[in-house]
Amino acid sequence: VPGRCFDQVRMSIAQPGLSVKLVTTHGGLSVGEDGTSHQSIEDLSLICSLPGFSVIVPADAIETTEAVKAAAATLGPFYIRLCRPKLPLVYGEDYQFKLGKAATMRQGGDATIIAIGLMVKAALEAARNLEREGIYCRVLNMSTLKPIDEAAIIQAAAETGAIVTAEEHLEHGGLGSLVAQVVAKNRPVPMEFIAIKDTYAKSGKPSELLERYGLTDKDIERGVKSAIKRKR
């Protein structure tokens, strides 16, 4: 949607502030074999630039259901970004989505991993692996990308002293950029960014692409260790 229809979204929804809810699929690399033309890897930066738009990137089917309900009940334009693959569940049926609030998936004091979408599962796997090495990570699901939960970010920076962001999006203009703005302004700490670098991706199976472009639990683990090394 943002690539082909950005001007329409900007002029017909954002500027008049209409309460339109956009639910899109095939976000990120995980469209797989469809290739570069179908990989929406810059959509979040485009939509987040539009004043008044709320942006949500759910972590699983349960959160998607709750996010759609919340968007429908809230005045204003929304962009809900889904990926193509069927994601494993990270939440139970009792989960309650809170717009604008990060969800703490795991506690820890050595570093914080902030993730969105399918990267939440990878973040949890990375945290479990790191725990075996004596590194304890807090994991935040920042499913509401805009308005972002600044309080949760500041608290994480103050209490853990290092932050790693993980997203299926270009490094520029997405989750990492938004978190870095909050950190730089309020509580500077070492950061690492697990995201697609300044490139378009090739065609391939989703799992192969995620590995090739550095979006796996192992990449998150390396990011955490790098950020911790730079802690004061």
TrEMBL record:
Cofactors: thiamine diphosphate
Keyword Lyase: no
Pfam families referenced in this protein's UniProt entry, alphabetically: Transket_pyr, Transketolase_C
Matching CDD domains: TPP_PYR_DXS_TK_like
Record-annotated Transketolase C-terminal domain positions: 100-220
Alphabetical list of SUPFAM superfamilies matching this protein: Thiamin diphosphate-binding fold (THDP-binding) (SSF52518), TK C-terminal domain-like (SSF52922)
Domain Transketolase-like pyrimidine-binding, first and last residues per copy: 4-88
Keyword annotations from UniProtKB, A to Z: Thiamine pyrophosphate
InterPro entries assigned to the protein according to its UniProt record, in alphabetical order: PDH/Transketolase (IPR051157), THDP-binding (IPR029061), Transketo_C/PFOR_II (IPR009014), Transketolase-like_Pyr-bd (IPR005475), Transketolase_C (IPR033248)
Family in the record: Belongs to the transketolase family.
PANTHER family reported in the protein's UniProt record: PYRUVATE DEHYDROGENASE E1 COMPONENT (PTHR43825), TRANSKETOLASE-LIKE PYRIMIDINE-BINDING DOMAIN-CONTAINING PROTEIN (PTHR43825:SF1)
Protein name: Transketolase-like pyrimidine-binding domain-containing protein
